[in-house]
Write a structure and sequence with these properties.
The complex is a heterodimer. Chain A is 23% helix and 31% strand. Chain A starts with 5 loop residues before the first helix and ends with a helix. In chain A, the strands form six sheets. Chain A has an eleven-stranded mixed beta sheet, with helices on both faces. The N terminus and C terminus of chain A are likely disordered. Chain A has three domains: 352 residues, no CATH class; 145 residues, Sandwich (Immunoglobulin-like); 64 residues, no CATH class. By secondary structure, chain A is an alpha+beta fold. Chain A has eleven helices and 27 strands. By secondary structure, chain B is α/β, with parallel strands linked by helices. Chain B folds into two domains: 265 residues, Aminopeptidase, CATH 3.40.630; 212 residues, no CATH class. Chain B is built from 17 helices and ten strands. In chain B, strands 1-2-4-3-5-8-6-7 form an eight-stranded mixed beta sheet, sandwiched between helices. In chain B, strands 9-10 form a two-stranded antiparallel ribbon. In chain B, strand 1 and strand 2 form a beta hairpin. Chain B is elongated, with a radius of gyration of 28 Å. The N and C termini of chain B lie far apart (73 Å). The relative contact order of chain B is 0.12. The chains are: A alpha+beta, B alpha/beta. At the A-B interface, helix 8 and strand 17 of A face loops of B. Chain B: This is Putative GPI transamidase component. Chain B: Keywords: Membrane, Transmembrane, Transmembrane helix. Chain B: Pfam families: Gaa1. Chain A: It comes from Tuber borchii (White truffle). Chain A: Keywords: Membrane, Signal, Transmembrane, Transmembrane helix.
Chain lengths: 588, 527
């Protein structure tokens, strides 16, 4: 077998964990998979698994998280922080069947145990607020308008008793706008027993992680039970990232990109104009040389002492590269070669570990396995009144039909029209594409729209899923500070269903969208406020003046200066005279 | 072309898409193929995009050799950077007129599928477009910034300001506007720049590949290299790069600046608050005249009307009364009795004339381009004799009174005033220009018993102000044959969705016809 497909690698890596968890309770294991991707990119997939219980004080399972879960009665938790987009056409299938990757921003879903919906909502709010503090993310903004209760897309991954399953409520919330950054990484690392000081987690540096083409951090907590009935919590933390080798190495030379000098260009000399100052660049691609310490800025600082002892199956670092490519590792590590394309190593506790790969020309790539579905989504139409969404879903397989659930969670100010929902294959709808629809309409300012569509795509076909929507006009206080940027629409979630069990086996996220709503000129309320304030001030000033001031006749003023006294007397005299003169005719 | 350029983009490791399109307008077929590549922003999330575009052939029909090469080179250069927060789309269109329109329509999924193909690859909301037009391989002297959009819509002024600042401030390249190759920044040149801008805006045609983007609320400009000088591709490339860096740093869509402006020089503009009143005054003139006529029409046959009750406008009416031998007495003046107006006939006439406007609209949009010139001459001839003929038919069949003519004029002016004031907010220049051309209509007196010479003089004046004359004027201004202008108009209607013709044939032309009928009517109607 020349290549190892993704599922088999996953199984290989997962198998020892199952064995380990059966033998030892408070265990912890970690491993790193490096895989070369086309276009001089590298996928680094870190995976940390810790097991424990709520009540154990000596467990590797972080107490901070355990207490939150206990408080909010959360039985299963999935939290994803993602940045960038997974380029399926170039990189193929996602690692771990897409289970660990979320949509752009933050995505959270959990099974909460509660008697009814309102209690579940209250616990969900508790959970969000607590996690928000723990991970320094705006998870507290997941309110009822951003929460949905998916029906078809998710199934619990852990072991739950049937009685408990009935009491579990699935809640799902997304924050497509949340920028994932170092402040989220630090608490993430703190949950690990070695806290990024030793073991493979020592490679996780914010500068490198957030410079990746695509990166995803995820935390999945689920109960795992043995056959004997003993249960414990299993927390799986993963960090996946795709690094661009050229850019990571280029940072070393100059932080600011500059055009290379002409001597360093490789020009096509066969062009008629070649030579002198004109150059047609050659497109020959080579696999650039790289090493762990160059890519991540430092080598692995030994192995984590708390991790399980590596066995033949459970290794620390695996590298999945083309067979032709040679690999050099630092001393102190043991190589356990598994197959031509997958080479695994175990680390020594106190020795730094580094991998060096020399240049290889011409470039040789691993054969990629395509994902079950290629999905892209875009907005259609223009104007500020209405719009549409078009999802292009392509089944690359040549022989098998793929069935999946397409889940949209739309904000309330986007009002879709379900009668415009259409699924067509090359312009035609044979009535067989849409299998099932679950639709929960939005309530203004209370909850968003939830749309789940089960689709079936025949092999090699492309389905266009279209629907139209109206844009609502918001109140002016409801706009974010950067209203003219637009509003982010959460990525659609595509859960591939297993044809027999109808359980989701693979999940894919589309990219998020930017929806522009009619935006008022925000200087207008400001102008209104200024104007009204001015009018108010003038009115208040004069009215207050009139009310408070005591009006006294000029002649009634007692005291004052000599001049005013005289003037007062003169005035009084004149007035008296006039009154006397005026009265005369009448009295006659 | 598309194959080759697609191959180059592919070699850079960019995602490439192609799009075929075919339009038919006025019997001509406009087909081509666009090719584009998307540079996905590293760490980006595909929500926003910028477009760098070059047409294979520019608006003058020259091969845009350096422009296309520059886009290809920039694609390679910009890919190495990690600072992009927005995707960059590199678009090479096969022509400057139909290609960009086909592409941007398909990007927003508003295209007509068999003729214009869908895009295989899309990115986020487009925030800005820069088109590079550099048809020679020699050095250039100045950068010509073209900004007019379709239907006279304009990009945000900040984009133009950014381009001007970068070009003149950082690169030391002179910038020009509206083909004013030399501009001394004095009154005369500013006025000329502004007027040229107004003519371009009023015509509402696409002035470059960027124009098609503007109706989608995407700010777009074209940078044209002009003249012989010592600036080379590197200067233009650095300008574009710098412009893209600026656009990339935009947190929000361009807003809170000017979308309505008239540029007088690259750093001077007239804002909407200053210029809009002029067009509004012209439009309001018609409305006020119409209201005046309406008030007057109610009292027209009132026997107790005072001679001196009204100004100039009622003079004709008074003459009419005098001629009837019923001189109103001044004593009974205050009791004004309103009279019933014969609305139906006049209203029907005005509405019918406006619907008549659809005829030339249909004609000039559906004829074959070969017949344009002859059709135009026939139409012009018909146009000359149409008002008297219409008037003759009208008077013969309905025997209208002078009141009918007053009301016809009243409704016609009311409609004109309404259309023009609405249009002034959408396309200021078009409204202003039509308003200026149509303003004599206000002063036509729909009353008979004039000297025939006065009527003839009016008719001559009106014939000089027809839409057809304006068309000939535009043809002379551009120095192109008439058929080319008509072809452009038909193309604009079919491909760009240009509304200028609708305004000309369904607003201006009917108003003109009615004015002609009124003048002719003053000969025909006996009191």
């Amino acid at each position: 077998m020349r290549l190892l497909s993704w599922p088999s690698i996953t199984q290989l890596l997962l198998a020892p964990l199952a064995v380990a968890s059966a033998s030892d309770y408070n265990d912890y294991s970690e491993n790193l998979l490096l895989k070369s991707l086309p276009g001089n990119s590298i996928l680094a997939s870190f995976r940390f698994v810790s097991n424990g219980t709520f009540d154990s004080h000596h467990s590797v399972f972080p107490r901070s998280l355990a207490q939150i879960l206990q408080q909010s009665q959360t039985k299963e938790l999935h939290l994803k922080f993602t940045l960038g987009r997974w380029d399926a056409e170039q990189w193929g299938r996602q690692v771990w069947d897409g289970r660990t990757a979320g949509g752009t921003g933050v995505e959270l879903w959990a099974w909460v145990e509660a008697a009814d919906d309102s209690e579940a909502d209250a616990r969900w709010t508790t959970l969000n607020n607590a996690l928000s503090g723990l991970f320094c993310a705006s998870l507290n903004f997941i309110d009822s308008t951003r929460t949905i209760r998916p029906v078809m897309s998710f199934q619990p991954a852990g072991h739950h008793s049937p009685e408990r399953l009935e009491r579990l409520h699935l809640l799902h919330g997304t924050l497509p706008r949340e920028p994932v950054c170092t402040e989220n990484l630090t608490p993430f690392l703190k949950l690990l027993p070695c806290k990024g000081k030793a073991g493979i987690s020592s490679l996780l540096d914010g500068h490198r992680l957030f410079d990746a083409q695509w990166q995803s951090m995820s935390i999945d907590v689920k109960p795992v039970c043995e056959e004997s009935g003993k249960c414990q919590l299993q927390m799986e933390q993963t960090v996946d990232m795709v690094l661009d080798v050229e850019r990571s190495l280029g940072k070393k030379d100059s932080p600011v990109p500059k055009p290379p000098p002409i001597e360093q260009l490789s020009c096509d000399q066969e062009k008629p104009y070649a030579g002198g100052d004109s150059c047609f660049p050659l497109s020959g691609v080579t696999d650039l040389p790289w090493s762990l310490s160059e890519m991540f800025g430092r080598p692995v600082r030994g192995s984590c002492p708390l991790a399980v002892v590596p066995t033949e199956e459970a290794t620390h670092v695996c590298v999945n590269i083309a067979e032709k490519r040679s690999i050099f590792v630092s001393q102190g590590s043991e190589e356990r070669k598994r197959s031509p394309e997958l080479r695994c190593f175990t680390l020594h506790e106190n020795l730094d570990f580094d991998i060096v790969l020399p240049e290889l020309s011409p470039s040789t790539n691993l054969l990629l396995t395509p994902p079950p579905v290629y999905a892209s989504r875009s907005l259609t139409g223009h104007g500020q009144e209405r719009g549409g969404i078009q999802a292009v879903l392509n089944n690359p397989s040549s022989n098998s039909t793929v069935e999946f659930v397409y889940l949209e969670s739309l904000p309330w100010f986007m009002k879709p029209y379900l009668h415009t929902l259409s699924a067509t294959i090359s312009g035609k709808d044979d009535g067989n594409i849409i299998q099932d629809i679950y639709y929960r309409p939005a309530l203004d300012r209370k909850r968003g729209t939830q749309l789940e569509v089960r689709l079936r795509v025949p092999p090699g076909e492309t389905v266009l899923l279209n629907y139209e929507f109206d844009k609502a006009v918001l109140r002016y206080t409801e706009y974010p500070p950067d209203a003219n940027r637009g509003f982010d629409i959460a990525p659609a979630i595509i859960s591939i269903l297993d044809s027999s069990s109808q359980k989701s086996t693979f999940s894919i996220r589309t990219t998020s969208l930017l929806l522009s709503l009619p935006t008022p000129d925000f200087s207008m309320p400001y102008n209104v406020i200024i104007l009204t304030s001015t009018v108010m001030a003038l009115a208040f000033g004069s009215i207050f003046n009139i009310l408070v001031r005591r009006f006294v006749g000029a002649d009634e003023v007692i005291g004052g200066s000599l001049v005013s006294k005289i003037r007062g007397h003169v005035m009084a005299f004149v007035a008296k005279k006039r009154r006397a003169g005026g009265d005369k005719p009448k009295t006659e | 072309m598309a194959e080759k350029i697609g191959g180059v983009f592919d070699a850079f490791g960019l995602k490439t898409g192609k799009q075929k399109f075919e339009y038919t307008a006025a019997g001509g077929v406009y087909a081509g193929e666009n090719v584009y590549a998307v540079l996905q922003a590293p760490r980006g999330d595909a929500t926003e995009a910028l477009v760098l575009c070059a047409a294979w052939v520019n608006t003058e029909g020259e091969l845009n050799e350096s422009g296309v090469a520059l886009v290809l080179a920039l694609a390679r250069y910009l890919k190495r950077w990690s600072l992009w927060s927005k995707d960059i789309i590199f678009l090479i269109t096969s022509d400057s007129r139909a290609g960009p329109q086909a592409w941007v329509d398909a990007y927003h999924d508003l295209h007509t599928p068999p003729a214009v193909a869908s895009l295989p690859l899309k990115s986020g909301a487009i925030q800005g477009v820069v088109v590079v037009d550099y048809p020679t391989s020699r050095g250039f002297e100045s950068l010509h910034i073209v900004y007019d959009g379709i239907n006279g819509q304009l990009p945000n002024l900040d984009l133009i300001n950014t381009a001007v600042r970068i070009a003149s401030g950082q690169m030391g390249v002179r910038t020009t506007l509206q083909e004013m190759w030399s501009h001394d920044n004095q009154y005369k040149d500013r006025l000329r720049t502004m007027l040229r801008g107004m003519v371009n805006q009023g015509l509402g045609h696409a002035s470059g590949p960027h124009s098609s983007f503007i109706p989608y609320h995407i700010d777009a400009i074209t940078l044209q290299a002009y003249g012989d000088g010592w600036h080379d591709e590197v200067t233009l490339g650095r300008t574009v790069e710098s412009l893209f860096r600026s656009l990339n740093n935009l947190l929000e869509h361009f807003h809170q600046s000017f979308f309505f402006y008239l540029l007088m020089a690259e750093r001077r503009f007239v804002s909407i608050g200053t210029y809009l009143p002029s067009a509004m005054l012209i439009a309001v003139n018609f409305t006020i005249a119409a209201i005046g006529l309406w008030l007057k029409s109610g009292r027209l046959n009132d026997k107790e009307e005072n001679k001196s009750s009204d100004g100039k406008a009622s003079e004709g009416k008074n003459k009419l009364l005098e001629s009837a031998g019923e001189v109103p007495s001044a004593a009974e003046q205050p009791d004004v009795v309103s009279e019933e107006r014969p609305l139906l006939l006049s209203m029907a006439f005005v509405v019918a004339t406006h619907f008549l406007g659809f005829m030339p609209l249909y004609l000039f949009n559906n004829l074959d381009e070969k017949n344009f010139t002859s059709a135009f001459y026939i139409f012009t001839l018909l146009n000359v004799i149409l008002p008297p003929v219409l008037c003759a038919i009208f008077t013969k069949s309905f025997a209208p009174t002078a009141l009918h003519f007053t009301l016809i004029k009243c409704f016609s002016l009311l409609l004109l005033g309404m259309f023009l004031s609405a249009l002034a907010t959408l396309n200021f220049s078009l409204s202003f220009l039509i308003g200026v051309f149509a303003s004599p209509i206000t002063f036509i007196n729909p009353t008979p018993k004039r000297k025939w010479t006065v009527g003839a003089a009016w008719m001559a004046l009106l014939q000089g102000l027809t839409p057809t004359t304006a068309l000939v004027g535009v043809a002379l201004y551009w120095g192109e044959p008439l058929s080319e202008i008509l072809k452009e108009a038909a193309f604009g209607w079919r491909v760009w969705g240009m509304w200028t013709q609708v305004v000309v044939w369904c607003v201006w032309w009917p108003a003109w016809i009615i004015a002609g009928v009124l003048v002719a009517g003053s000969w025909a109607v006996e009191a």
